[in-house]
Amino acid sequence: MYVIVVGGGKVGYYLTKELLAAGHELVLLEKDGRRARQIADEVGSIVLQRDGCEGKHLEEAGAKRAAIVAAVTGDDEDNLVVCQMAKHHFDVPRTIARVNNPQNESLFRHLGVDDIISPTRMALAAIEQDIPVHELLHLAQLPGGRLELIEARITEDSPAAGRRAADLSLPEACSLFAIIRDGNAQVIRSDTSLQVGDTVLAISRTESETQLHDALIGAADGADAD
Amino acid sequence: MRAFIAGCGRTGAGLAEQLARAGHEVTIIDTNSEAFNRLDHGFPGRALRADVTDEDQLRRAGAQGVDLFFALTEGDNRNILAAQSATESLGIERVVAKVNDPVRAEAYRALGIATLCRTRILADALATWSGLPHDPGAEGVAPATGHHREHADMTADASLTVGGR
């Protein structure tokens, strides 16, 4: 599979090494001359000193036959432009962008980027799993990157406490599928009512998380700020 | 009208003053507050330090609901990201991005962004002055020629305009 990697920072460098080790054909675009030479010394002549945001450089790199373009520079705006140029000018089937500001995730998907890598969100998810706050916990990101597995605890303040699962007003792209009560997991049916102390497992689109939070835990009273 | 300008360079500052003098309500942002020295002392609009690529900061600076949005920073890609965020997330209708690379400017017109390409306009002005024929594509703001909605899943995207967190 032919892959174009844009950005030769730490992520791009290690990504390139791993992909080469796995036997893929690839080229790395890095616009800084010194950095490009440095990486070329390590991995060989697959490094081009080019700005991947420029259409003609992507073309030289063979974007027309690339199966994947992965934009992993440290700047969200550059990664967006690389992916959009790849997608719309060269019909690259799959584009991947590194996104640092989590708020850009839904915008980038909306604008046609196929996959998002979010180091910020990954770190956040790892931290949240260790903190038993009354918030949504991110258990896992499902393949494709749009859906997440989420856990929420029902407390006395929760608007969902004492109500049937079927009666909750949940965001559309969201589904509750199990509860853990007294240490036992059980499937949620439409007549299951949620009780204080239950842990609810849900699948949700990343963008619908706020609404899911409001429905299960309660509106956030500015709690997002801390 | 309410206008929002990102980038307080000579162009941004000059435009801010013109719009303000004409009685419009102007907000101008820049990541470097020293850039605001370019504005007149009596500038009646708002000048705020904010990053145009950060949607939270745009909202806080009051970009939502403005009539005109200008992305005029020195970074083509920053302007492109900001313009798409203004259009798609903030729902602003009249948005212009300065994109100095002519290839990218043309590409993003096709993706639905009105662009201003300084390079093409200047080159054309100088070529015309030298006696060459005028490039008809090099006049002011080039309107969008396409729209990238074809990639959007409209129903699922309601959350974008609502904002979320």
Describe the structure.
Chain A is an alpha/beta fold. Chain A has helices at residues 10-21, 33-43, 55-60, 76-90, 104-110, 119-128, 209-216, and strands at 2-6, 25-29, 47-48, 68-71, 94-98, 115-117, 137-141, 147-153, 174-181, 184-187, 199-205. In chain A, strands 3-2-1-4-5-6 form a six-stranded parallel beta sheet, sandwiched between helices. Chain A has a five-stranded antiparallel beta sheet with strand order 7-8-11-9-10. In chain A, a hairpin with a 5-residue loop joins strand 7 and strand 8 (147-153). In chain A, 38% of the residues are buried. Chain B is of the alpha/beta class and 165 residues long. Chain B has a single domain, classed as Rossmann fold. In chain B, 35% of the residues lie in helices and 16% in strands. Chain B is globular. Chain B starts with a strand and ends with a helix. Chain A binds chain B through residues 53-56, 75-78, 80-81, 84-85, 88-89, 101, 103-104, 106-107, 110-112, 171-173, 205, 207-211, 220, 224, and chain B through 53-56, 75-78, 80-81, 84-85, 88-89, 101, 103-104, 107, 110-111, 148, 151-152, 155-157, 159-160, 164-165.
